[in-house]
Amino acid sequence: MIDQSYNYIADHINQLQPSGIRRFFDLASKMENVISLGVGEPDFVTPWNVIEASYHSLEQGYTAYTANAGLLELRQELSRFLEKQYHVAYRPEDQLLITVGASQAIDLAFRAILNPGDEVLVIEPSFVSYVPAIKLAGGEPVIVEATEQHAFKVQPEDIERAITGKTKAILICSPNNPTGAALNKEELAAIGQIAQRHDLIVVSDEIYADLLYDEPFTSFAAIPNMQERTILISGFSKAFAMTGWRLGYAAAPKAIIEAMTKIHQYTIMCAPTMAQYGALEALRNGQDSVIEMKTSYRQRRNYVVRTLQDIGFPCHLPGGAFYVFPSIKGTGLTSEQFAERLLDEQKVAVVPGHVFGKSGEGYVRCSYATSMQQLTEAMKRIRRFMEQFN
Amino acid sequence: MEQKEIELLQILEKNGRLSTETIAKMMELTAEEVELMMKKLEEECTILGYSTLVNWAKVLKDERVTAMIEVKVTPTRGAGFDHVAERIYRFPEVKALYLMSGAYDLSITIEGQTMMEISRFVSDKLSTLDSVVSTVTHFVLKKYKHDGIVFDKRDDQDKRMMVTP
Prior knowledge:
The complex is a heterodimer of chains A (390) and B (165).
Chain A: H1 11-15, H2 20-29, E1 35-36, H3 48-59, H4 72-86, E2 96-99, H5 101-113, E3 119-124, H6 130-136, E4 140-145, H7 156-162, E5 167-173, H8 185-197, E6 201-205, E7 230-235, E8 248-251, H9 254-267, H10 273-285, H11 287-311, E9 323-324, H12 335-346, E10 348-349, E11 351-352, E12 364-367, H13 372-386
Parallel strand pairs in A: 1-10, 3-4, 3-5, 5-6, 6-7
Antiparallel strand pairs in A: 2-8, 7-8, 9-12, 11-12
Helix pairs in contact in A: 3-10, 4-10, 5-6, 5-9, 11-13
Chain B: H1 3-14, H2 20-27, H3 31-43, E1 65-73, H4 82-89, E2 94-99, E3 106-112, H5 115-126, E4 132-139, E5 145-146, E6 149-150
Antiparallel strand pairs in B: 1-3, 1-4, 2-3, 5-6
Helix pairs in contact in B: 2-3
């Protein structure tokens, strides 16, 4: 019997597809002894000094709301951090907004800038929330594919080709989830020129900025003349291993931050106070932990990529984040079949690439944010699984 | 020291059981290069050994006791503290020995099968050394953390969900 209460749901929400990742989660969590390479978050626990600072704030009774935009002290520290790390200058008073995770910042950004029918270019394969966030804000996502042929780096001419009179913004995420691809300064500058030529806003999701392994990170806002049209989005989740704290931020020109803050004040009020105090400590004294975690991720990336290549998967070396995105086309299976059978036969969970967009078909996302012990066992099992295809 | 050597030492210090092949992949080197590097570090005594951290409290039959002994000594002319230190660390039951700043000079970590055994060490072997002026013995009641490793394994549980975006 169809549940009548579905009739109560708004049409555009009924039409929104639940994330394909959910189904996989249900499958994997019913099984035992599974090694999961499907987790999109650090395997580290938040550094102790951050946890302790948050404790302390609670003990001191800092349990009330903060300013809508977040603690001024935190925004000041963040402003210094952005200047020092990425050489971008943002005023703490009116160009920064503390949000509930980078996810909320993405939602706010699109709600603030999109008129109904405005188009946003989304580079796929991409994080699962982008397309729904744009749709929920009344916009039209337009997909631009980044292919393996170019190491999953989007090509400027493909962006150019997708632009219409209705295009309002480009959304980029570098280093990327799920491919790990990272754009260098020149590649970002090429996108910048297009944005300037067509007067587009660039929403730059830089949540993996601190997890770039082979070269220094360039923020899109640091590209000459780009800051005025950039909404820089990031957060504390990945670099500081703080996913559960739900704390992110947006940095943008004053008018955009004002607009985002307007929505934020009516819908959220402010980000959790205790998490903001933890983040303050992370910015002040967290860099050593970040460097240590980054070293460990880099080593694990190298291990996983080289082992997957040994096993026979075509797999590029991702520049950042903690994902590798090997091609499984040689098996003749779809990515969904591959992931299901790998889970079923060898109890290793990976995420089928198609959940990150159509262009992710033929690939799977493996997260290496898990212990070396688990990784070596997972690689053994994947090798065993692949024997049947040789 | 070369950056790669430091990286190798850091990897091994965390986990001495990784295979050479695995370490080679982690460091973007060949297995031969890693082996050569390890050999060099062993020869120059930068790497002194590969050991396993055991929580002996889990081994029911084993009731060994650990004590830390603070020792005040008179340094000897010419050799300073080194001479008396050597006299002490030669005993196999001495697991660690440090020269300290502050109220005493030497800190000994000692392991024995019983408290009696440790008290005999202090009264018969340690206190009788000419340069030893005084000793204070502290017995360890419980080990929480050793060499950076927390003994309570609840810490190791992966608290994340199985699959997340």
